[in-house]
Amino acid sequence: MTRSLRKALLLWLLLPAGLAVATFLPLAYHLIHQPAMEAFDQALADAGLALVPHLEVIGGEPRFVFPAAAEQVLRTDRVDEVYFLVLGPNERFVAGDIGLPHASPNDNAESDGEERLNFDSHFRGHPIRVSTLRRTIAGETFLFVTAETTRKRDRLRVDLTFALALPLIFFAGATGLTIWFGIRHALLPVEDIRAALKRMGHRALQPLDAASAPTEIRPLVDEFNLVLDRLEQAAAAQQRFVANAAHQLRTPLAGVRTQLELLQRENDANVREARCAQCISAIERLGHLVNQMLVLLSAEPSGRHAGLAAPIDVPELIRERSPEWIRLAEAHHIDLGFELQAAAVSGDKLLLGEAIANLVINAIHYTPAKGEVTIRCRQQGDDVLIDVEDNGPGIPADARERVFERFFRLPGTTGQGSGLGLAIVREIARGFGGEVCALAPSDGQGARLQVRLPAIPSSP
Length: 460
Fold this sequence. Notes:
This protein is rod-shaped. The strands form four sheets. The protein has a six-stranded antiparallel β-sheet, covered by helices on one side. The protein has a five-stranded mixed β-sheet with strand order 10-12-13-15-14, covered by helices on one side. A two-stranded antiparallel sheet has the order 1-2. The protein is α+β, with helices and mostly antiparallel strands. It is built from nine helices and 15 strands. Helices cover 50% and strands 20% of the residues.
């Protein structure tokens, strides 16, 4: 599901405004509508009170004297129709509009005190608001009922709703637009970053301007610049690798081609056999170089082997790979020794085997006949140390760092190495979270290469 930062910000900012509007509208409506309705009810009740003075009881008979002019004043209303009714004891009709709904204040619904009652009803097909007033005159109880249609009240409700809703709707719309444009303006730096990335070429990675970025996304820009820097370094290393690899591959290929061209013109069987042997040797070197390049690419810490991590028994791994090294050492008349102690690491067993094999094979190749090569492993604190030591010509102190560079070979070296063996060891060691270094040999002669890897924590 695609997430939008702009939509999320808009939602979270509009939510409080929407809740405020939803809360304020009914509250404001109630605070204004209720007093207005009470004022209408009070005016209706006052009209009922105005009827009381016109009722007299003469000889036990009620007599309601209501001049026509007074009745006209009572019934005059520009909006609503007004009705009245006067009832004597036992609800006997005295005057007014026959059939007008009425109720006794004793019913206690919306009763104001003990003598007045307000309620809604219908009369002559129209909704009305009724006010009933009870009065005792000459010892007899009379009801004075006044009523009016609800047009004013309905119109007030509509006008009040529009009067409150329209400004709030305008406010909500203006707030929404303000928040929208505010968010859009606030996110412009993000758009600028996107545009800068779009303009950036893959061969010209330029760091983003972190100083102009907002404080909240400046750490993100800084981290992105670090990623760009690592990518640029990786791209540069890859270009160097490709250039060096092309050079290293071109030389044996050119040699093989030259030998084959000479072989076409050669008639001497012995010479032809010698040239074929040279071609085979050159192809073997080329195959070794290609294999080393593939191992180096696999050893680069790109996360491709993260799922292959497993506990590795280092002495057992060395024992598994030792037969091939023993045969190679016997062919070169080298005394190959082992000093193995318990040690375990976590990682890719195949890559660690390749790293140790490169150290051992290098030592065997560069050690003169009847020399010695010793493989050691042990655990020291939280680290596992793997040493390969020989008594050959050694590595000069000023070259102990450079020997781990790709395709670097010591001046005067006559071996047939590819210059990738120690570079592979370094990449594999770094992939395990460790490091490799060239140390001074224990007896002062030869070379000593040591791989230091994190040990598997021992169980408590």
